[in-house]
Amino acid sequence: MGFNSSNLKSGYKSAALLFLFAVAASATFAQETTIPIETANNAMVLQVAKNKDLNTIYFGVKLSNAAEYGKVPGVYNQDDYTGMLNSAYTSSGSRNLVEPAISVTHADGNNSLDLKYVSHNITKVSDDVSLLTIQLKDPVYDFEVTLYYKSYFKDDVIEQWSTIKNNEKGVVTLNKFASANLYLKAGSFWLRQYHGDWAKEMQPEETQITHGVKTIDTKLGTRANLFEPSVFMVSLDKPATEDEGTVLYGGVEWSGNFREDFELDPTDNLRIIAGANNYASAYTLKTGEDFKTPAVWYTLSDKGRGDASRKLQSWARNYKLLDGKGTRMTLLNNWESTYFDFNEQKLSELLKDTKKLGVDLFLLDDGWFANKYPRNGDHAGLGDWQENKSKLPNGIAALVKESQTDGVKFGIWIEPEMVNPKSILYEKHPDWVVKQPKRDEYYFRNQLVLDLTNPKVQDFVFNIVDSLFVKNPGLAFIKWDCNAVIYNAYSARLKDQSHFYVDYVRGLYKVLERIRAKYPVVPMMLCSGGGGRVDYAALQYFTEFWPSDNTDPIERIFIQWEYSYFYPAMASANHVTDWGKQPLKFRTDVAMMGRLGFDIVVSKLSGSDLQFAQDAVKTYNSVKQTIWQGDQYRLSDPREKNVASIMYLDAAKANGVMFNYLVNYRYDQGSKTPIRLKGLDPKKNYKLKEINLYPGASSSIDGEKTYQGDFLMKVGFNPQVNTGRSSVVLQISEIN
Ligand code: GLA
Fold this sequence. Notes:
The protein is an alpha+beta fold. Helix content is about 20%, strand content about 30%. It is built from twelve helices and 36 strands. It starts with a helix and ends with a strand. Mean pLDDT is about 95; it is low at about 1-30.
């Protein structure tokens, strides 16, 4: 049927009817069931309409009278023909005209879905955590969806996911299967998103959202964040600043293809639909089967970006990041000091250097394995996880033993999801490799990805880790790398290829579950050719992540700054390397804003550099607890000012550390004006003493002077940063 004016007229008529219906419905909203999801400061309020649609009627700062949420829809005159622009989980193929959260093809080939409220239930998981479940069902098809909202009261965070269940007599195909469907009202919306590539992670872009749909997604499979991570900020009415404005943070807990749609709808409200990507991933469900979507997390603050990030960091430490309240080990890594060129003798010397430096652990990087195709470069050996006999004739065991004698711990690099075509693994199990049977292979860093949808591959990957621990019970740390994206996605085993991307990630999590069941606490670093993979699903298994191979400290100030909005410092693995032009002190100061490590040739350090590094490790040990567990305040933005300044403050507001760096090296730049501190107790008195000084250097700061918190927050403090003092660390201590 063509589109003609009579259709148009009847279209308007039914739209008008719907509109009248919507107006009539809004008049009775007060009587309708509202389901508030409240946290300390915010409320998201859902409402069951008369026709049993589940809609979002409010998401923002809590109202003081909860009884008034029902009045919210009544004060908007926005014509919604469908009555479902604010659906809490938008289905497609019925009345919906906009981006759906879910789209299905039923067993009989029909594409329509209409989800109606059935019931809901709230359970208290703990004093702080509640779980709301809402049951939805299609009145025509035996098809149901359960929505889950897990709310973390103190930190104002919500995690949301859904379970989609097919009870039909036959196979249903899920064409889209989002986790969350948010709905926000404001005068304008500003999206801060991130893009990047190797060594250029977390580059921010902020733009006003215009009408239509803006999608942020990845189709890379593994190393999913290489071009863009799923973390985002949406500011309401105007771009939020560090301390002002209303801002929503969100991200998908999924270490593979994700998708986020930001739709400014015809009535100027923002719909955000986020979850795993449906790209090439139509998922079939047999009768009785269900599909659990990954979780999407979000938090809202009306006090700017800084407050949102502190809440998120606190939530991460309390609930998400593995061992988020625990400790981390300082380390010496050999990647940049040796690359693939080492042997037992060299490593033995590095173990002694580890001790000399005073760090906790030595981390042996890539290059220790494979014999038929030795891992002497990145073109061979991945997949053959036996010690290389000519480099390590006595195996890892001898090194672990030696490390114990030296009084340091030992960690090791693996990249267990990958294979080089030049490997015994590839020769023996070509069917374990992700590749198109009839097409040429195409490589990323000379390697291919193993098919983790295959349980045999899952066993293989689990066994790489397990046998390392079984053979070397003293092994204390794993760096888990993932350097390739997925090209030519295809599994030799899967019947339904469109399950590949989802089942890959599920396979990965199965392996990580097994590892954590057996080795619950051993620290593991999540690395992905730099920062290609970090999200809050993975961080339930990993204790830290590698933000970028780019360790030039100037670059790192920017990269770490942006990551810090979403992840706590203790999760950020920061190494001092030879990248960049800055002196050792500057490089070390920047690396201290996280989990400190070194990747330098200790034996080649000058006497005073070595002395500085040894002292820096001790200094770090004395302040690391504040950096890891304290609240982070961003004081001076390197994108706006010549000096970057970041502080960490403990919960008692008694001890803090303030890091200051010169980021603009043009003539006569420096901290001309004081930098205002934040978060202090205005009534308390503090001293600010310069720490981590280079041997022989004296500070231009009088560490004995006391300042009231009020002064430091209203007037500020000058760290005396200039080209001669390009990096200044101040210890803040309360004076009793
Ligand atoms: C990736 C990592 C590096 C290093 C190399 C080893 O690039 O990001 O830190 O481990 O692999 O090949």
